[in-house]
Amino acid sequence: MRHPLPFVAAVGVLLFLPSLGGGFLADDAYHLAAMENPEMFSGLGPLSLYTFIDDQPDRMGPVHGDLLPWWASSDFRQDFFRPLSCVFHQIDHVIYGRNPVGYHATNLLLWAFVLVMVLLLYRELAGNWKRGPLLVLLAGLFFALDEAHVLTVCWVANRYALLGTALSLGAVLQYHRYRNKDGMGYLFWSLLLTGLALLADEGSVSLLFWLVAYEVCLSKDRIKKRIGAAAPAAAMILVYMAVYTLLGYGSSGSENYINPLQRPMFFLKEAVAERIPFLLMGALTPVPAQLSISRLSSDGLEPLILAWGLSAVMVVLLACRLRKDRVAGFMALAALGVMITRATTYPHDRLLLLATAGSAWVLAAFVAAAWRSGWFWRIAAVAVVGIHGLVAPVQTGKGVVANTRRAEAMRRAALESDLPGAGQAEGARVLLLSSPPYGYFFPGLRWLEGLPYPEAVWVVTMGRGDFRLSCTGPNSFRVEILTHDFLRELAARICRDEFVFEEGDRFKKGALEVVITRVKEEQVREFVVSIDRPLDHPRVWLVAWNGSRFVRMPPPP
């Protein structure tokens, strides 16, 4: 196939076409609420739809502080500067209102933009380094069919990754043209696209690694000229990082979101020991990177051993056949650099979009090189094609359908839950027990359907486990944790970086107050919850998750 670009782009878009039937998922509800009622959110503006800061813990009102449970660190913040992505959300909201089809259509258009950019980059690299169109076709298909992209394309809130990746790839393409054709116009476009990418997604700072990898692997100039060529874009990225930090953007007080500038050694340990191996596994094998999440609840080493084993095997196989391939080396180093920047948060396939632009080329180059070798390498090449060319699209198709069904299941569960409806929400206090990780999004999903938002919603316990409740006063009750540790769920650990509690520790969230009364083996086993109204007040809703929806409970005995 002489011109694989239209074919691969069409295949990639068609594979994700069912995502148009998906609804809003999790954060999407609150992004819409922020656009329609920005006064409901503290510190949330049109340039940062992704802000979660509770700087007024004593205030109580709709949405404010609801996304942060009572155990959130006092210094927790998750404040990402993504104005260009937010503009796209605002435009969608003006055009489509609360109709999710339009938002998903925009995501599909951005996904097509990503595919075009990655294929243009592949085609130019192939032309400059005398690689045939078959390698471009194979690398493009490996990228377009990768199941790691399901959540990125199907989740409206993850749009920033699509936009940032497309612009980043465009910047790399223009930089490649600048270095090969020596035209200052190409440098201008590369810098412009770099700036736009940074305004779309702060993760685009990984462009720095693409530039370094390019100069290390593909340039034949002297060191001084290489540094001079990369200096303008590198300076722009470094200045952006400095301004981003000085303005207070970023994250803190979180075990999940690690700020490397605040905790460099902790980040280095987590990235090298756990996060990068899981990301490598997700990029190079069909095993998802989010397998790492299972370690939180069990402390088992099996997922980590699997990640290290699979990633090591794949890296060794690829290195053995491609150690002299300079283009593959460039792509491999660039992909690894992206993973280093993505290791600031817990491993998940949705973090791999830009990284797989590099790893897909490496896998395709391995197939081409291995097929010309002995029987062992031919078997390995067939296995890679089977996994990334045949199994991957099946898994991706299933993933797109499953994600669509998940969104509908969340919407249905939210609507069917025993939560305040019309005429009940004013002054309502809702306390969520055994909430699933996505349970605190239910009031927002109900709001999208035209139902009112309660005055206050608090997560009391999250995830699996058995609890015993007992009344300690008209306004308070005791929670005894019989099995499991509800603070081991990933969603519970996002907003705290230190999980050492002492008896007598007190937490306040609006009208909710929690006092820890028993700690055993560094785990909270008992605490007392109190609010500003009697538990038998008609506006107090004590609800527990029964596996499919929230069910209202009577006050504890």
Give an account of the 3D structure.
The protein is an alpha+beta fold and 557 residues long. It has 2 domains: 4-47 and 82-250 and 259-406, no CATH class; 417-553, no CATH class. 53% of the residues lie in helices and 11% in strands. The strands form 3 sheets. Strands 6-7-10-9-8 form a 5-stranded antiparallel β-sheet, with no helix packed on it. Strands 5-4-11-12 form a 4-stranded mixed β-sheet. Helix 1 (4-15) runs parallel beside helix 5 (133-144). The N and C termini lie far apart (73 Å).
What's the structural blueprint in terms of helices and strands?
Elements (H helix, E strand, L loop, with lengths): L3 H12 L11 H10 L15 E2 L23 E3 L3 H14 L3 H29 L4 H12 L5 H5 L4 H23 L2 H17 L6 H11 L5 H24 L3 E3 L11 H21 L9 H5 L3 H21 L3 H17 L10 H19 L3 H42 L12 E5 L8 H7 L7 E4 L6 E8 L2 E8 L6 H4 L12 E4 L2 E9 L2 E8 L9 E6 L4 E4 L4
Parallel strand pairs: 4-5, 4-11
Antiparallel strand pairs: 1-2, 2-3, 6-7, 7-10, 8-9, 9-10, 11-12
Helix pairs in contact: 1-4, 1-5, 2-17, 3-4, 3-8, 4-5, 4-7, 5-15, 7-8, 7-9, 8-10, 9-10, 9-14, 11-13, 14-15, 15-16, 16-17
Helical stretch tally: 18
Rg from Cα:
25 Å
Q: Which strand order does the major sheet show?
A: 6-7-10-9-8
Count of distinct strands: 12
**Helix fraction?**
40-55%
Q: What sort of overall outline do the alpha carbons produce when their principal axes are compared?
A: elongated
Class of secondary structure makeup: alpha+beta
Our count of domains comes out at 2
Strand content: 5-15%
How confident overall, as mean pLDDT? 87
Tell me the distance between the termini.
Answer: 73 Å
Low-confidence stretches: none
What is the H/E order? HHEEHHHHHHHHEHHHHHHEHEEEHEEEEE
Largest sheet: 5 strands, antiparallel
